[in-house]
Amino acid sequence: MRRIAIVGAGSIGCLLAARLTTTPAEVTLVARPRAAEAIGRDGITLATPLGRVSRVPIRVTDDALSAGRQDAVFLCVKAHALGGALDMLASLSGPETAVVPMVNGIPWWYPLGQPEPLGSYRLKSVDPDGTLWRAIPADRLVGSVAWVSVEGDGAGRIRHVDDQRFVFGDPLGRRTAAVEGVVELFSLAGFQARGSLDIRSDIWTKLWGNLAFNPLSALTGATMGALCVDPGTRTVARTLMEEARAVAERLGVRSAADIEARIAAAAAVGDFRTSMLQDMEAGRRLEIEAIVRAVAELGALAGVPTPTVETVAALVEMRARQRGGGPAGLAA
Hints:
Layout (H helix, E strand, L loop, with lengths): L2 E5 L3 H10 L5 E5 L2 H10 L1 E4 L5 E4 L3 E2 L2 H4 L4 E4 L10 H7 L5 E4 L29 H5 L7 E10 L4 E13 L7 H12 L3 E4 L3 H22 L3 H6 L1 H20 L8 H11 L5 H8 L5 H15 L4 H17 L9
Helix pairs in contact: 7-9, 7-11, 7-13, 9-12, 12-13
């Protein structure tokens, strides 16, 4: 892949921009005007897990049209912000452009090619009016799962806390040149990248942790390590994972991951503030729909009760409303 664009200058977008710039690809970061100005002036300041700090010059713009057509576009925005990125995506895309949404939770394309009743279903929690389904061609999608912990500290300043694994796969389970190209690109950047013929299983394995720890951290203000150590929150996290596993299994997903092993892996990250906790503290909208509500929606479709998931969703939504709200009481 010769030309790639990264839409979104949050923690993940900046990490990808800084690392992928070391590859032969021509990388353009598309950001909001204020962030584009700061990053254009100062570059991206990246602190590594080993404590090394570097400043990386980046090609950045707030005008997607000026960047031209790309071989791949990485959408590094929250799931609820994807609709707002569609104009930028259209400016960056040609008929062969691979589209890689780097989002947490259940993606809007999840029902694509699945058996009924899922196959014809449209996820209201993440794509309520079908905008994403209509706007992004299914044959250009590359599904992704990011196993990486990154914290942001202002425009273009990030701390890479832990891990650097990425999984990519075609939503229809095919071996495609787009998936192979993205895996090769990330490998050249020094990431641990692999392709998957069952990307939905990988999504659920990652979602276990997001579902369990993101909303609990937003509710309590605790880091991931603290949530794993405390007996009460550890029990709630395990129950959330068990409900999610039951939904996934009813939908035909089989995962070799073990819940206790997943919790232990989260505990090993230590005092990391989850992305939802970072958003709560910064007054940003929370990823409740894709990470929590979508699991409950799929559970209802599959006939699997998810009482703890629904309880936690209601609590974190109330917490967000109490903090100050935008649409539906959630911070904008």
